[in-house]
Design goal:
305 residues; alpha/beta; seven-stranded mixed sheet; six-stranded parallel sheet
Length: 305
């Protein structure tokens, strides 16, 4: 089979031939039809001390199952998060990370919706906006952000604001249901908001926190790091909440499953519409990474083995 790999920090990415892996206990072997490209994986390629397997979101059909698997069988269509080599024709997916794909849903939509949608859904759950409150989403045109904008609207936010790096993304963000769109470089992000969902981190945490009204909540789910001054929290009685999807998936599988079912319901009713920026071949993985690194994407970036 073909697999994307790199040998040193920063790349380059290249295709290699590799044996088809065998599923271990509790694992599924999936023939990949779509692979989601995420910012955390892109960052690891450029920042990790040693090369890592290029994992991430995959969608496809089960071709073999390991010992002890009970929820899935050969021929089932699934999507989920792969922690091993996911940029490949075949990938191993643990049963607990897998979600069935309903009939009539394509692999690209499935991979664009489930993992990114779960992060967006979970971040909103952490923020707990009351009906009528204002929600601001940073990286609003990203794979997670564009779904967070739609989910905030669906759960009754009074106003939804997107924050982006480039004004050229504003029309796209408004088309998702945002009432307004601001740029990171603006002196002010407008009237104070009740919740900020931040998928950027780093230096953007300061203006994100400043955008909050008193008693506002900032949910940080980015891998971008950053620091916040305690004084900036104290003066407005503001809160910062860290959110990581992996902790939910591993520690609260019943909640993880409930969120997945809700995402499929919203998708089936046409309330949630995943957007795909582009589809790339495995051989074009480096170009797909470049789109993410330059923050040029409008929606999800997907590899098609």
């Amino acid at each position: 089979m073909r697999r994307v790999r790199y040998d040193s920090t920063g790349g380059p990415l290249f295709l290699e031939e590799a044996p088809v892996p065998a599923p271990g206990p509790g694992e599924l072997l999936v023939r990949c039809k779509a692979v989601g490209v995420t910012l955390p994986v892109v960052r690891k390629v450029t920042e990790a001390a040693e090369p890592i397997p290029l994992g991430g979101e995959i969608a496809g059909r089960v071709v073999a199952v390991g010992e002890g698997v009970t929820r899935f069988g050969t021929g089932d269509r699934v999507t989920g998060l792969c922690f091993g080599h996911g940029y490949a024709d075949f990938a191993v997916l643990h049963e607990t990370m897998a979600s069935p794909v309903p009939e009539g849903v394509g692999a690209v939509d499935a991979v664009a919706l489930v993992r990114s949608g779960l992060v967006a859904f979970g971040a909103l759950e952490a923020a707990r906006p009351a009906p009528g409150e204002t929600v601001l989403v940073t990286a609003a045109a990203s794979g997670v952000g564009h779904l967070a904008v739609q989910l905030a609207r669906a759960r009754g936010a009074g106003r939804v604001i997107g924050a982006v790096s480039d004004p050229a993304k504003a029309d796209f963000v408004r088309s998702l249901g945002a009432d307004d769109c601001v740029q990171y470089a603006d002196d002010s992000w407008g009237e104070p908001v009740d919740c900020v969902l931040d998928g950027v981190g780093g230096d953007l945490l300061t203006p994100a926190l400043a955008a909050l009204a008193p008693h506002g909540r900032l949910v940080a789910y980015s891998s971008g790091g950053g620091a916040i001054r305690a004084y900036d929290l104290l003066v407005g009685a503001k809160s910062v909440i860290g959110f990581q999807m992996a902790l939910i998936a591993r520690g609260r599988p019943e909640l993880y499953e409930r969120w997945r079912q809700e995402l499929w319901r919203l998708y089936g009713e046409g309330i949630l519409r995943p957007a795909v920026h582009g589809e790339f071949t495995l051989g074009d993985a480096a170009r797909a990474h470049a789109v993410i690194e330059s923050r040029a994407n409008l929606g999800k970036v997907v590899l098609r083995p």
